[in-house]
Design a protein that fits this description.
Elements lengths: L2 H26 L5 H21 L3 E7 L2 E4 L2 E2 L1 H5 L2 H9 L4 E5 L4 H11 L9 H10 L5 E4 L20 H21 L6 H26 L9 H15 L6 H12 L10 H4 L7 H20 L4 H9 L20 H16 L10 H9 L7 H11 L7 E4 L4 E6 L8 E4 L14 E4 L11 E4 L14
Antiparallel strand pairs: 1-2, 1-4, 2-3, 4-5, 6-7, 6-10, 7-8, 8-9
Helix pairs in contact: 1-2, 7-8, 7-9, 8-9, 8-10, 9-10, 9-14, 10-13, 12-13, 13-14, 14-15
Length: about 475
C-alpha cells in the first residue's frame, strides 16, 4: 500500500472524528457553542489540508451498509464511532456527503444543525440541500442515492462490510452516544439497552473474542471517551472469564464497566473535549464525573455494582483518589477490575494530548503505581491479556504478518493466525495457519519481531473485523 494512501486514509479518518464530535456537541448544545465552534474550526482546516493533499477541490463520502466509504475504499475504523453520523444521513435518505474545500464555518454549522436532533417531518436530503443553498452555501451537499456513481465513490466497487465484532463495537458506541445526548438534555436514560448489549458482547466473546479484543486495543483519538468505555467493557469481561464461570456475574461486571464513565455527560463540554492539559480547577471539575455518575445511576435504580464502580473507579485501595469520603473506603473486587482495565486502556489508546503506550510499557507503569491496584488482580490481568493482546496484529521475524488469537503459557509467545506470506502477500482464508509460537517446534525466525501499527491495517477487509 503506498504511503500516500495511508496518509490520506488517516487524514480523512481524523476529519470524520472531528465531524462526529461536532455533531454530538450540536446534539447536546448547539452549533454555536464555543467548544463546538473550535471543533468546526479544526474540521475546516482538516478539509482544506486533505483536499490539497489529494489535489481535489472536494471530498465525497458515501454510506453503505453502516460503513463510510472514501474513494471506493471502506473506512472500517472511522465507521466504528460514526454511527450517529451514518444514522443522521440515513434518516434524511442521503447516501453520502460532499464537502468542498471552500466550505465556511457558518456553512459547516448549518450542516450540523440539519443533521442533529430528531428528524423533522417531511425533511430529507433535498430539503437540507435547499436550506443550505438558500443560505448561499454551495460547498456542502447531501447526495441522492443515485448520484454517487458520478462522483469519486462507486458503491458497486465496494465489497467489504462490517463483521460481527465491528458491528457490536459500533452499536455499543452508538448506545453511549445516545445516552450522552439524553443526559445532556436532561432526559432519563435506558439502562436495559446497555445491559442487553453487554450480553451480546459476552456471547460474541465466547465464539470469537480475537476480533473484539482487537477493537479493545484499537488505537484512535477518542475525544468523548465513549470508545474507551466499550473497550474497558471487553477487557473487564475478558479478565472476569478467568475468575468465574457465572455468566450473570460476568455480564453485571461488563454492564458496570460500560457505565463507569457515564458521569462525564454531566461535565462541561469544553472540559470533556479539551485537547490541552487541564488547569487545577478544571481537573477538579472533571473529577466530579465519578460522584455524579454514581448519583445518577442510583437515581435510575441501576445495579448496585454499576453504582459502586462508577463512584469508586478512581479511588485508591485505602486512602486517596477521588471522590473523597469521610469514612474508610475499600473498593469492591468489581471496582478493582474495572480500575485496572480503565488505566490500561487509557495508557494504550491514543489521546489528543499524548501518544499511546505499547502493552509492556503500560504494564511497567501500572506495576510501579504502588497502592493503586490489587496486585493479585493486576498480575491476573497481565497474564490474561499478555504482552500481545488477543487481536493484536504483529510481524514475525520471517516477515509474516499475524493476528494474535489467544495467549499461551508464555507471555511473549502467543498463539497466532498467519495472515500473509513472508513477502507480505495476503493469504486466502483457507491458507491461514494457526501457530502456537511457544511450541518447541517453532523456529526462531517465526518468533515475534514487533507490533504492526494498527491504523496501517485497520481498514483492510482481510482483518474480518
Amino acid at each position: 500500500m503506498p504511503v500516500a494512501k495511508k496518509s490520506s486514509t488517516r487524514t480523512v479518518t481524523a476529519l470524520i472524528d472531528e465531524l462526529v464530535s461536532a455533531l454530538l456537541g450540536t446534539d447536546v448544545h448547539h452549533s454555536n457553542h464555543p467548544q463546538v465552534q473550535e471543533t468546526v474550526d479544526s474540521l475546516q482546516h482538516q478539509l482544506l489540508d486533505l483536499t490539497h493533499q489529494l489535489g481535489q477541490d472536494s471530498l465525497c463520502l458515501a454510506v453503505l451498509d453502516d460503513l463510510l466509504v472514501f474513494q471506493d475504499k471502506p473506512l472500517l475504523s472511522a465507521s466504528l464511532s460514526a454511527s450517529r453520523l451514518i444514522r443522521s444521513l440515513g434518516n434524511l435518505g442521503a447516501s453520502g456527503l460532499e464537502l468542498h474545500a471552500g466550505a465556511t464555518k457558518e456553512h459547516i454549522s448549518s450542516l450540523l444543525e440539519a443533521l442533529a436532533g430528531p428528524r423533522v417531518s417531511g425533511q430529507d436530503f433535498r430539503s437540507v440541500n435547499a436550506l443550505l443553498s438558500g443560505q448561499g452555501c454551495v460547498d456542502i451537499k447531501l447526495h441522492d442515492p443515485l448520484s454517487l456513481g458520478d462522483k469519486d465513490v462507486k458503491p458497486e466497487a465496494v465489497s467489504s462490510t462490517l463483521g460481527p465484532a465491528a458491528r457490536v463495537y459500533q452499536t455499543g458506541i452508538a448506545i453511549l452516544q445516545d445516552m450522552t445526548v439524553d443526559i445532556g438534555l436532561g432526559r432519563r436514560i435506558s439502562l436495559d439497552m446497555v445491559r442487553n448489549h453487554v450480553e451480546r458482547m459476552y456471547e460474541l466473546m465466547q465464539t470469537q473474542d480475537g476480533p473484539l479484543m482487537n477493537l479493545a486495543s484499537y488505537e484512535q483519538d477518542d475525544a468523548f471517551t465513549l470508545g474507551h468505555s466499550v473497550r474497558v467493557t471487553v477487557l473487564a469481561m475478558n479478565l472476569a472469564c478467568t475468575m468465574t464461570e457465572d455468566v450473570e456475574t460476568i455480564v453485571r461486571l461488563g454492564n458496570a464497566a460500560m457505565l463507569h464513565d457515564v458521569g462525564k455527560a454531566l461535565i462541561p463540554l469544553e472540559l470533556v473535549l479539551s485537547r490541552a492539559a487541564l488547569e487545577e480547577d478544571e481537573l477538579i471539575e472533571v473529577q466530579k464525573h465519578a460522584e455524579k455518575g454514581g448519583e445518577m445511576l442510583m437515581d435510575h435504580g441501576a445495579d448496585p455494582l454499576a453504582v459502586t464502580v462508577a463512584f469508586g473507579h478512581h479511588r485508591l485501595r485505602h486512602e486517596g483518589g477521588y471522590p473523597h469520603t469521610r469514612h474508610k473506603y475499600m473498593p469492591s473486587t468489581g471496582t478493582e477490575i474495572v480500575k485496572i482495565c480503565d488505566v490500561f486502556e487509557a495508557l494504550t489508546a491514543n489521546r489528543p494530548y499524548r501518544p499511546r503506550m505499547l502493552p509492556p510499557d503500560a504494564y511497567r507503569v501500572m506495576l510501579g503505581m504502588k497502592g493503586h491496584f490489587d496486585q493479585h488482580l493486576l498480575r491476573c490481568f497481565i497474564q490474561r491479556t499478555g504482552l500481545f493482546p488477543a487481536g493484536q496484529i504483529i510481524q514475525l521475524k520471517s516477515g509474516e504478518i499475524a493476528r494474535v488469537i489467544k495467549q499461551s503459557n508464555s507471555l511473549d509467545e502467543p498463539v497466532v493466525e498467519i495472515l500473509t506470506s513472508p513477502g507480505g502477500d495476503q493469504l486466502s482464508e483457507s491458507d491461514h495457519q494457526i501457530l502456537d509460537l511457544s511450541a518447541p517446534s517453532v523456529e526462531e525466525v517465526r518468533k515475534v519481531e514487533g507490533v504492526v501499527d494498527l491504523p496501517e491495517v485497520a481498514d483492510d477487509p482481510n482483518l474480518n473485523l
